[in-house]
Amino acid sequence: KQRERLYFFFYVFQYIGVLFAAAAPVLLNRLFDTCDCNMCNTNPLITDIEKCIRNCKIMCNVKSNEQSLFCLSLAIGVLFVSSIVLLSFTIKERSESFNTDSMDFIPSLYELITNKPFLSLITPWILDVTIMTIFSTMLPFFLNIIINPQKYCIYNHIPLDNLECSVNYYLGMTISVFFICCIAFCGVWHALVAKFGKRRCWQIYSLLCIIPFSLFLFCDLGTSKTLVVAAILTAFPAGGAYLNDVLVSDTIDYDEFFTGKRNEGIFTVCSAFIPKFVSLFAQAIPLSIMALIGFVPSENGIVHTQPAKVRNFIKLFFSVVPIALALISFLFKLKYPIKNDGIM
Length: 344
Known about the structure:
This protein is an all-alpha fold. It contains 13 helices and no strands.
């Protein structure tokens, strides 16, 4: 129970950090937004003044993004290095916490294979990580190509300097709303775990992923508000993602019960490696498929009209694939051998 609280607070602060990193570029854009498009009116060689101003504002937006992201990256880099140096000098480990017994890679791997709860945990864990990676990877493409606020504003004769025409505005809003709701829903899941047990809640949160990802099928040109609502609903199951780490700790306890040794190292390394390995493929595969079926990259910040098959792929991959993965994850979670009371 203490570990469940520990991971609850860990994920809350993690979401706060990601929220800051997502919202900061949007706020910094206002500082670096020094757009001057007067040359469109003064240059006699320019015939289509409206198009010139539109392209100029898009280019200004790209430049302000570059400056804001550079400043944010620099600030986070300095903060990160300072934090590591501070921790290195202030946090001391007890000498008895170091395990002097060495274990080769193959015996360590065998420890994982013989741990039945850990094997039952790996597959749904991989699927859950894949769902969230797809969401984070495909969201900018979904906004730019399916929602496409710029195109919506052009069709409806809305000035492009309005916030509702900015992709970055809606991207920042969607991510900000998502992580704010994740923080709140972490508290909800923490309360639900206390009442129903972590195993049941862990199973239910996969099943709940189906509802919000179904809403993405109804998104189309200019439906930015629908996207924000879907993001809020997606945050509810995402708030329970910390339970994966809690259950990894339970499998370490289970291993110690049978072996008499606490082999936290191999389980911790594996739990840190699996999400990174899975994210690599979850990011590369959809982007590769998009390139193969004819995706047209943006040029100077201008989003080109994409072929119908690219639009359909983005829409289906962003919604149908996560729904299928969530269902499969739920079915695997039903087979997890450790019950709510810790008994197999």
